[in-house]
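#onboarding

Welcome to the new folks! Below is a worked example of what a typical request in this channel looks like: someone posts a single protein sequence, and someone else replies with the predicted structure as tokens. Don't worry about understanding the tokens yet, we'll cover that in week two.

Example request:
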Amino acid sequence: MTQEQRSFLEAKLLKDYQLELDDEGVSGERLAYRLGKIAEIGLTSEGGSYRIGFSKGERQAKELIKSWMRAAGLKVTEDGAGNVFGRLAGKQAHLPAILSGSHVDSVPNGGHFDGVLGVLTALEVVEAWKESNFQPKKPFEVVIFTDEEGSRFNGGLTGSEGMMGNIKLEERKQLKDQNGLSFQEVLEADGLNIDGYVQSPRPLNELEMFVEVHIEQGKQLEKAGLPCGIVTGIAGPCWLEIKFSGVAGHAGNTPMNDRQDALVAASQFVYEVSKLPKQVSETAVATVGKMFVHPNGANVIPGEVQLYVDIRDIFEETRNQLVDSVISCLNEIAAQSQVKVKVKELLRVRPVPIASEMQEKLSHSLQAHGIKEMRLPSGAGHDAMIVGEKLPVAMLFVRSKDGISHNPKEWTSLSDCVQAVHVLKHFVEQLQQK
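Example response:
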């Protein structure tokens, strides 16, 4: 293939690729080609991806990868949630399967590596085994989960929740997308239906574990100069909606010592919240990222402020401790400022710490390929978080340039991607030995 015939992403990936990483049947050129072909589906004018869940773009990407799965000798199936499975039979077909993959949907105008890399690294492991005529003892499945990002219904993780039996059918039936289409209508437009969605859970005795490769979406690996690292746990978020109610008044005629300023109280709270996470855990975080001020006039003392706090940690005990600390801080400030506060909990998801056994196996795989070990938490949610509630999981992060994600500038070098394939391959081969 000439340079002119390559996709824009494929050409860029191959430009500085370390060819010596092509080993044991793994092909950087094949991986670059496939990343490039998926990037062309839903390509935006800004050079990003637009493949929201259950869209024609997500469907087109799935169908293309299905064709690659079949060519690699995998048996391809799709469940009622739209999850795609490419199964390589094991020598002992009765054993539970090892799953690896991610998703191919994107946020509007997102990047080209988030999710897609996890699917294609898993498929590349199969391709490498095919090159060397290797058949694993245990069945191995490459999985594409549907609608991980949640851009369609402001939710997400639809496919992995379906596979794991977290259906919440009545809640989903109430959902409508930005065009007013119901969840049922969106399913039907993608060739699916409610009855099939309800039947999407897999029997857990069919599955041994799930391993997900994903870009880091942060800067820790880049700062350390490492291509990939071991995820120690996936943070579970708790979202609080908080309303401060003071007294609105004229900015000129109300003395400073006679004010109940909701925004002053809220501002003090925002500042104090930023200092709380380090008091409970090295991995905890808390963020105020959304705020509304009423009446929002330049010459009016704010009478009401509504804001949202996102609190996360990879350990449930310390995450919950941080939630309690945030609420305690809120009540103290309210009392001092003589404003009223109301708190509504919108979400509380259980964190998923990753078992030390899985971390150690990934550590051995990094060492086997001369990669210095680094362990780091995932602050973002992933399909592995849902699967990890009921099955063992492992996660491998791959270096992100400048930590940018959900953006057309999202970038991970091909050399880093291929090193992740080697680590994943070694990890899955270790699992064949028990």
